[in-house]
Amino acid sequence: MRGSVRGLRARLVVAFLLVAAVSSLTTAALTFREARRAILQRSQDTAVNALRAQVDSLAPDLTFPPSQAALENFVHQINGGGQAQGWTAYATYGDETTAPDVADTAPEAITSGLRDAVSKRGVPVFQRVDVAGRPWLAIGMPVTYAGGEREQSGLAVYAELPLTAEKTNIDALIQAAERGALPALALSLVPALLAAQGVLRPVRKLRRAAGDLAAGRLDTRLGVRGGDELAELSRSFNHMAATLEENVIELRRLEATARRFASDVSHELRTPLAAMTAVTDVLDEDADTLDPDTAAAVRLVSEETGKLVRMVEDLMEVSRFDAGAAALHLDEVDAAETVRKSLHARGWLDQVRAELPEHTRVSLDPRRIDVVVANLVGNALRHGGGPVRVTLRTTPRAADGTGRLVIEVADRGPGIAPEVLPHIFERFYKADAARARSEGSGLGLAIAAENVRLHGGELRAANAPGGGAVFTADMPLRPLEQS
């Protein structure tokens, strides 16, 4: 659920809905503002014009200064003529004389600011105010003398009228906008889903194609339609896939050529090396009867021939791994006895501290475990520091008969440099360039790692906290009945 909410489809739909919502709200707000302004402006203009017409028709009959009775009659006539608008009017003359309508009913919408504006400007003034939550329109209109110069007469007419009907109309507009918003968003969901579907379809195809390409199907290509950005992305993917296919084919060809060359050379060297080894063995037996210089040369030839033989054997073993021809020949053996035999065959029992629990019956390939132990212990003796410790342990078998077999080889040398650790199992890699002429071929650890991997395990290298290198072969234990 979390992935679907955070997915591209959800984000596209939400973005589309947000755009639709913002557009709808903006349009509704602008429409509402214009409609509200038009409604209020129409009511305002109608009331102001009607009041001006009443004042213009009744004011000429007044005599100045007007009496209280005349003002009362004047206001009464204005109120009678404004029944259609529903206003309440009153009049003031000077600072003290006020019509009785004002004294008896205090005006709510006529503010002191409106009075000051009428007095100072001498022109009609109006304002909209809210009184106790109700909208009102207040109008102030000065009465002037007729003539070229319209002098102030001192008489001012004020009117206030409720805008209840207009507020009802405006509220109806708001409700209509609210009722229409949800259906509009619901309707916009359909094109949002269609748009997201159209955008995501090529994206999903691209994802599947990338998965196929990662799975090794290098001939994967996308169908390209149109000329938009997604089509350009598909074309770029096709170009990348084609280039990758060409490069991989070329790399595979070169790799196959290199493997075939190493395998062919190794096989071709075996016959002359066998003859050379036989000859050097004979010469070694007679070396003591030769003069010192000749004996030293014989021993050097014999030593270098042995190195060459071991290197050829390593190359042939690597070639079998590369060709997929390496296979396990499982046998039920005592793991401790297998490790002990490997150490004894090379005369290392006196140089190694072995912690080998007895009677550990396991199913494995003894020859390949011998290769692993020989390479790890030999590497520790040559490049580490004594004492070298070999530890064998197993984890308890689970209900299905499986467990873990761990062989650990540790030394007390300087350890492995941090920059070397990532490359320690690479072929022909040597941490010290000065050891290029050492007896190692640079393949021993790589072969050991391949043999552990063939057992379904992993070979790891690390530095011990107290110093020295630690190599750990961690392999699963197969049920004995399957051996």
Automatic annotation (TrEMBL):
It holds the Pfam family HisKA. Residues 264-479 form the Histidine kinase domain. The lineage of its organism: Bacteria, Bacillati, Actinomycetota, Actinomycetes, Kitasatosporales. InterPro entries: HAMP_dom, HATPase_C_sf, HATPase_dom, His_kinase_dom, HisK_dim/P_dom, HisK_dim/P_sf, Sig_transdc_His_kin-like_C, TCS_sensor_his_kinase. This is histidine kinase. It comes from the Bacteria. Residues 197-249 form the HAMP domain. The keyword Membrane applies. Its EC number is 2.7.13.3. It is found in: Cell membrane. PROSITE patterns: HAMP, HIS_KIN. Coiled coil: none annotated. Keywords: Kinase, Membrane, Phosphoprotein, Transferase, Transmembrane, Transmembrane helix, Two-component regulatory system. It catalyses: ATP + protein L-histidine = ADP + protein N-phospho-L-histidine. Gene3D superfamilies: 1.10.287.130, 6.10.340.10, Histidine kinase-like ATPase, C-terminal domain. It comes from Streptantibioticus parmotrematis. SMART domains: HAMP, HATPase_c, HisKA.
